[in-house]
UniProtKB/TrEMBL annotation:
Keywords linked to the UniProt accession: Membrane, Transmembrane, Transmembrane helix
GO biological process, one term: protein ubiquitination
Membrane-crossing segments per the record: 195-215, 227-246
Signal sequence, start to end: none
Family matches, as InterPro entries: DCAF17
Protein name, per record: DCA17 factor
Organism: Sinosuthora webbiana
């Protein structure tokens, strides 16, 4: 606070908003992050220059899935790690092939928090949290693959933990089981199964156990199909499209029977063991005995439900199949539909359009169709401060022509009849948007557009100004793009990485690096 007042006095600024604005633009050289912001600004300018190219520097193929996390490429079920930051990707570590019982089901990258004292020197380096098929939670060094910590999850309660996710990114982690299903013989014998899912909750760095709870039919109902936890909210989804939200922290506080620490000896419900050690695992110490207070519920087709914007709004699709592709944007406060809040591109396509809140925290909304990307914003209705409307911020349009095919037929009398029909909006022979992403450090919106002629598909990655949508750079991808395959494209500062999954579990990875050699236009 004293430093802030000194800065105000030194520059003659007496308004906090002006000070923050000047600070964001790098007026104060001693502020943390100024040099980093300047460097990223320079990188963005260099990247968008006409002379800057992206060169395919490395290609590999694999019979197992390929994953990418923050400059690291993982192969062979995370047994092989390759850095993509070097001028040409190189091996970081290669572990011996693991047994099927040690297969990794899911993984999360864990990065050191800034400004915190941690108990172990290894905590200050990036690590990988992985979940194995045998219910072990492992923390691996991102540099060597060495096991730093291990926790056994499943005691007598659950044998099938399968999914990792963040409640609060880089702070609170959720480990979720597969849905509990009785064998057919047990169901025929009339045996009832009331527990649907188990959730184990951890604080990370240092790794500590918060608790484990069960999602039970007797509490949440018979038609529960899935659950998730995000930003302190327990999200319960039902077969009829219903989505219900509960306060997850309040559930932990209210129904926690006894706290436990990893490595602690315990005597729990007749069991004696050590928390997180084999064979006892973790105790189910959060018992929900009554339905928690409901925060919010909505009905949406296929349980599609998102919250964002400012003030808070949510996006749903009316819960009827005929409304697929129609999105309603409503106020979370009173469920009121925003003015112009029904978004419908009226696409005639095989793949549906999609919509989501912009990840740049601006409160905007991105709506992506086959040939059109709309960036929308929430704003107050004129003369009605309590009502919001959806307005168009900017659009990005695919580079295509109006293609109308003529089908010519001749009748028995010799009369020529012409039938006119329009191609599908996502016909592969027309340029179609397949991926839209946001690079937060460079503040660029990236799009992948594909055109396929015969068996040969061509894709290009475009960078757009995130504020106005102006096209700044276009990068052609060298490899052929088949629209029937599964594709992921990562844009990470000066790196572009394309992962492709072909039939019969064949995977390919293409790495592009930024080069500024004007003398070699072919690169």
């Amino acid at each position: 606070a004293g430093g802030g007042r000194a800065a105000l006095r030194a520059c003659g600024v007496h308004n906090v908003c002006r000070l923050l604005s000047r600070r964001a633009h790098g007026f104060y050289a001693r502020d943390a992050g100024v040099a980093h912001r300047k460097n990223l600004g320079l990188l963005r300018k260099i990247m968008c220059q006409e002379s800057t190219k992206f060169k395919n520097v490395w290609t590999t193929h694999s019979a197992s899935p390929i994953a990418y996390e923050r400059g690291r490429i993982y192969m062979d079920n995370y047994q092989c790690c390759i850095t993509s930051i070097a001028q040409q990707p190189r091996l970081i570590y290669q572990k011996s092939k693991c047994a099927k019982s040690e297969k990794i089901e899911d993984a999360l990258l864990l990065e050191c928090p800034l400004g915190e004292l941690l108990p172990s020197p290894s905590d200050y380096k990036a690590s990988l949290i992985v979940l194995t098929v045998q219910n072990w939670l492992l923390r691996l060094s991102a540099d060597s693959g060495e096991v730093l910590e291990k926790v056994y999850l499943a005691g007598s309660c659950c044998k099938f933990f399968r999914y990792l996710s963040w409640d609060t990114p880089q702070e609170v982690m959720i480990v979720k089981s597969a849905q509990n299903k009785l064998p057919a013989a047990a169901r025929q014998a009339g045996i009832q199964q009331s527990v649907l899912f188990y959730l184990a909750v951890f604080q990370v760095l240092p790794l500590s156990f918060i608790g484990m709870l069960e999602i039970n039919k007797k509490i949440f109902g018979n038609s529960v199909t899935d659950v998730a936890v995000s930003n302190g909210i327990l999200i319960v989804m039902y077969s009829m499209g219903l989505v219900r939200l509960y306060n997850f922290k309040a559930i932990l506080d209210q129904f926690m029977e006894q706290p436990f620490q990893l490595g602690q000896e315990f005597n729990w419900n007749g069991q004696v063991g050590i928390v997180g050690k084999y064979p006892f695992g973790l105790p189910c110490n959060i018992k929900i005995t009554d339905t928690p207070p409901l925060l919010f519920e909505a009905s949406s087709l296929e349980n599609a439900f998102q919250i964002g914007g400012y003030p808070w709004h949510y996006i749903i699709t009316p819960n009827k199949k005929k409304h697929k592709g129609v999105f309603h944007i409503c106020s979370l406060k009173d469920n009121a539909l925003a003015k112009n809040g029904i978004q419908d591109m009226k696409c005639c396509s095989l793949e549906p359009d999609w919509i989501y809140f912009h990840p740049d925290m601006s409160g905007r909304i991105i709506h992506v169709g086959p040939n059109l990307i709309k960036v929308l914003k929430l704003k107050e209705v004129k003369n009605h401060a309590d009502q919001m409307e959806i307005a168009e911020d900017f659009t990005i349009v695919a580079n295509r022509e109006n293609c109308v095919n003529n089908s010519v037929t001749v009748t028995a009398s010799g009369r020529v009849v012409k039938k006119r029909f329009t191609l599908l909006d996502d016909d592969p022979e027309q340029e179609t948007f397949k991926i839209v992403d946001y690079e937060d450090e460079l503040d660029l919106l990236s799009t992948v557009a594909v055109t396929q002629i015969g068996a040969d598909g061509r894709a290009h990655l475009d960078f757009h100004c995130n504020e106005h949508g102006i096209l700044l750079k276009s990068i052609p991808l060298k490899e052929s793009w088949d629209v029937t395959y599964s594709h992921e494209v990562y844009f990470d500062k000066d790196l572009v990485l394309h992962i492709e999954q072909k039939p019969n579990r064949r995977f390919s990875c293409y790495v592009y690096q930024m080069v500024c050699d004007t003398a070699r236009d072919d690169d």
